[in-house]
Amino acid sequence: MEFMSAREAADKWGISQRRVAVLCSEQRIAEATMLGNMWVIPKTAEKPIDARSMRYKDSKEKTVKPFLKWAGGKGQLLREIEKFYPFADGKITKYAEPFVGGGAVLFDILSKYDLKEVYVSDINAELINTYHIIRDDIDALIEKLYNMQNDFLPLDIDDRKAYYMQNRDRFNDLKVNGNENINIEKAALMIFLNKTCFNGLFRVNKKNLFNVPMGAYKNPMICDENNLRAVSEKLQGVTIVCGDYRESADFIDEDTFVYFDPPYRPITDTASFTAYTENSFNDEEQIELARFVDDIDRRGAKVVISNSDPKNSNTEDDFFDNIYSSHKIKRVEANRMINCNSEARGKIKELLISNF
Predict the structure, then answer these.
(1) Distances from the Cα of 261 to the Cαs of 216, 247, 352, in angstroms?
(2) By CB atoms within 10 Å of each CB, which of 226, 323, 338, 348 scores lowest?
(3) CA atoms of 231 and 130, how far apart (whole Å)
(4) C-beta of residue 31 within 8 angstroms of C-beta of residue 45
(5) What pLDDT is attached to residue 31?
(6) Measured at the alpha carbon of residue 71, what is the angle toward residues 149 and 264, in degrees to the nearest 5?
(7) CA 74 to chain centre
């Protein structure tokens, strides 16, 4: 049997190479085989019928969830955000999420819709490395996570703390001195620390070192193999970029739905949870993002942005009302989930801003 590459199949069928990879990963091309890190396809294979009707997928389709707990994660707001999904008429065939974080919206969309192209990015290098490893090296990652889980769970509290600190130090060493040869280990450490640290919080200090203490979980699931494998399948063909949100400009066009979930503007002087990297996201950068949104709005893209509502603490603060004055602003209720003071957790308003 003669084979062709995914690139050759894409040229033959008039679709993107990423689309071919997705069809292969979904086993919709008979006898397509992964050879190394590339798909090979029988030359006699026919283009699968396009199932992208933008309907919900069959209920038997695997549903995936975020593989990390992430500060500001949108799991609790999905029911509000999904009301904006513009896929029903089949005209929007691409999705971009330039501040992907934990990916709650991404995985909701990947679970429900079959899109032509998907682009995600973040400036957090360790986070994006983990996305890459889950997509490309899932077996090796799962092996390392099981080893960590088997080492950690039987330990008493003092030994757990020692094991945790040892792995936190190793993670920080790899952040500073690592190279591509140890990316799988770094991804495993990222997940381990997320599952065992206080509140699943990712925070770095001024030296860009992860500094969250161990949490008090009795039996954390460090290796959720079923979900990790499902996530790996869904990420096949997804473009994953470590970089600034502006790099998404070349991907975004009139066929694209874009969801922006930038670091939130603090609603009080002490409520900043933007330290996911050594870089901050101040008011000037919020304004720059609003200008970028205006630019892609002119291209015809469908856009939704989420952020904190400054009116939670100051009813006269019209910052977002002003910078997004040409767009629609919806205020929705959310729970403040990450706070060291449990009494400070509760209902607040957040913003969902859209251009449609």
Answers:
(1) 29, 15, 10
(2) 226
(3) 12
(4) yes
(5) 81
(6) 160
(7) 10
Measured distance CA(319)–CA(293) in Å, rounded: 16
Question: Among the residues of the chain, which ranges form H helices?
Answer: 6-13, 17-25, 78-81, 104-112, 125-136, 138-152, 157-177, 183-196, 225-235, 283-299, 319-323
What separation in angstroms does the CA of 186 have from each of 130, 155, 288?
8, 22, 32
229 by Cβ neighbours in 10 Å (0-12 / 13-18 / 19+) ranks as middle
What SS3 class is residue 328? strand
Whole-angstrom distance, CA of residue 249 vs CA of residue 345: 37
Beta carbons within 10 angstroms of residue 328's beta carbon: 12
For residue 325 the two structure tokens come to: 């004055």
Distances (CA, A) of 40 to 2, 27, 34, 90, 147: 10, 13, 6, 29, 33
How many residues comprise the chain?
Answer: 356
Phi, psi of 292 (to 5 degrees): -65, -40
Pairing mode of beta strands 117-122, 94-97: parallel
Flag whether the pTM goes above 0.85.
no
The answer to whether residues 316 and 254 touch, using CB atoms and an 8 Å cutoff, is: no
Q: What percent of the chain shows pLDDT beyond 70? A: 89
CB 309 within 8 A of CB 350: yes
pLDDT digits (tens, 9 = 90+) for 307-339: 999 999 999 999 999 999 999 999 999 875 444
What's the chain's average pLDDT?
Answer: 89
| Non-local CB neighbours of 1 within 8 Å, separated by 6+ positions | 31, 42, 43, 44
Place of tokens 């996305």: 131
As given in the structure block, the two tokens for residue 182 are 């140890």
